[in-house]
Amino acid sequence: MSRWCEGLHISGGFALLAAWFALVNGWQLLAVILSAALLHELGHLLVLYLLGGRVLGLRISIFGAELVTDAARLSYPGELAAVLAGPAVNLLCGLLLARGHAWVAAGAHLSLCLFNLLPVRPLDGGRALALAVSALAGPAAGEGAARWAGALTALTLGALSLWLMGRTGGSLWLLPAAAGLLAAGARELTGKKADFL
């Protein structure tokens, strides 16, 4: 893990994956994907700022970016709005770019939106599920719903990704997603916190 400045953590795995992706697919496509990710995080930041939330840091790993926040200042609806702001920005950008026939950029935004809405923590969908159920039925119910939905979704999609790799002769681009999903599923089953990769 490297630490470039206070609050910003970038893993070596991310740097290697980005370099490999750029080598195989070109810097232009990497720039499109990273700009979609940047706008996603800016969506979270904007809503956090508007609601008086505080950002403590940013962690970037091979499985994406995660803002570290002081969510204790926010209500359940406020935190839910901040969590869903990132996917909402990607959805809006994707629809606008599709109208302009910028298909690659639109696809990057829409893919990032849909992936982040999976009910798997630490993705936005898993966090949103935990918050929504917690607001309705209490924190214990929110934790249980997020744990079981996350484990089931992550393990199923991770196994499906591995099966697809084997069936099609293997696309190594599915490997990080499969590994991340299987690790997230295992974490949910065991109740462990996510490690930084």
Q: What's the SSE pattern?
A: EEHHEEHHHHH
Helix content: 55-70%
Extended strand count: 4
Give the low-pLDDT segments: none
Count of structural domains: 2
Outline = globular
**How much of the residues is beta strand, in percent?**
5-15%
Summarize model confidence as the mean pLDDT. Answer: 89
Q: How are the strands ordered across the major sheet? A: 1-2-3-4
In whole angstroms, the N-to-C terminal distance is: 7 Å
Derived structural class: alpha+beta
Main sheet overview: 4 strands, mixed
In DSSP terms (H or I, runs of 4 or more residues), the helix count works out at: 7
Give the C-alpha Rg.
Answer: 17 Å
Keywords: Hydrolase, Membrane, Metalloprotease, Protease, Transmembrane, Transmembrane helix, Zinc
Transmembrane segments: 12-39
Protein name: Peptidase M50
Cofactor: Zn(2+)
